[in-house]
Amino acid sequence: MPTSARLDGLDFARFIAFVGMVLVNFTVAMGAEGQGSFLATTFVGTLEGRAAATFVVLAGIGLGLAANKAANKHDFNDHLIWLTSKRALFLLALGLLNSLIFDADILHYYALYFFFGVFFIRMSSAGLIFSIVALLVGFVIMLLTLDYDVGWDWKTYTYKNFWTLEGFVCNLFFNGWHPVVPWLAFFLFGILLSRLSLNQIQTQLQLFIFGLIALLTVEGLSLLTLALLAGAEQDLLDIATTEPLPPMPYYMIAGMASACMVLAFSLWVSSKAIGLSKTAGLRLCNNIGRQTLTLYVAHILLGMGTLEALGLLDGQNASGTTDDAIIASGVFLIATTLYIWAYSKFFTRGPIENLMRLITR
User: Fold this and answer.
1) Where is the Heparan-alpha-glucosaminide N-acetyltransferase catalytic domain (predicted)?
2) Contact 12, 266 (CB under 8 A)
């Protein structure tokens, strides 16, 4: 598979993750979790925490591929570190602005993933695996020794001390929505995956099978462990969960496994004879995948802003269900598709992607 096809596959994977993210975030914003038909709640429930994890893995793959491409340049380390650091600062600023209106912003966490992750790009694969395990184990130790609930109002899912130095650092590294420990492990896992022969069908098949087996295994182990720990303290029960809060090892492994499956499927689709470049529908999905930074902001400002104007957000006396959230997500995604179809006739990258490149080049 040529390099362009591989990149097309990554864009398609970002598209899949974006759809999942919209479904989950709209459901949470409407306070519709667990409300609605069994099929709808189960479907969205399986996506919770997995779409965001896939995005972070893909970000790590992107940086790893960039490092591999530039490996022969003498100044590549300094240049890549400087460029990535500038883009991390851009994401941090954008994320903090976004946090003013959306508590579950991921962009300011992304900034730290890139800032720390760039120093791992030349590490050996064994070193990356060790670092991933250390992050997972480190978080378990932190959970058992620190107060994970500090700062949280779990009834409203708001973090009271976010804008204080102590609260911000604690949220960013330990008990936020996507804390650096252990979420940086997703990014490092992406760097590790970027070293595989992703253009080979055999590798794609192995990735999908590995992801499926790992996902089923960890979900089964989680159920077994929870059964064995029945009646135990909540901290011990948390260790066995595959829920994203708190992000315990079972959840992290499940997130990596899901990302492998999405990646393998996307790369396989892009390698077919029809090709993404020859299929209008897949090309459109590709273009959506290239603008996920812009669309992430849009789904908050425009998507959730519209829901708020219609009185459909949680806390507005709305009684939405997961089914309603899926419908709202579908409407937003249709609007997104129309926008991308028109915008892509004139521009390759999204407005915010272009702004980031302009400021940080």
Assistant:
1) 6-207
2) yes
Instruction: Report whether pLDDT(223) > 60.
Output: yes
Average pLDDT, the chain: 89
What size, in residues, is the chain? 361
| Radius of gyration of the chain, Cα coordinates, nearest whole angstrom | 20
SS3 label, residue 73: coil
pLDDT in tens, 224-273: 988 888 777 766 777 888 989 899 999 999 999 999 999 999 999 887 74
Decide if 87 contacts 114 (C-beta within 8 A): yes
Question: Which residue spans within 38-167 are E strands per DSSP?
Answer: 152-153, 158-159
pTM of the model: 0.92
Whether residue 40 is predicted with pLDDT greater than 80 in this model: the reply is yes
User: What is the C-alpha to C-alpha distance for residues 345 and 191, in angstroms, rounded to an integer?
Assistant: 32
202 pLDDT more than 60: yes
- 8 Å CB contact between 169 and 197: no
User: Residue 308: which residues within 8 A CB-CB, separation 6 or more?
Assistant: 316
Confirm if 186 and 62 have CB atoms less than 8 A apart: no
Q: How many domains does the chain have?
A: 1
**What are the tokens at 243?**
């829920």
Give the side-chain half-sphere CA count within 13 A for 60. Answer: 33
Smallest CA-to-CA distance from 88 within 63, 66, 69, 65 is with 63
Question: How far, in Å, CA of 328 to CA of 312, rounded?
Answer: 10
**pLDDT single digits (tens) 301-325:** 999 999 988 888 876 555 678 999 9
Nearest to 250 by CA among 268, 270, 269, 229: 229
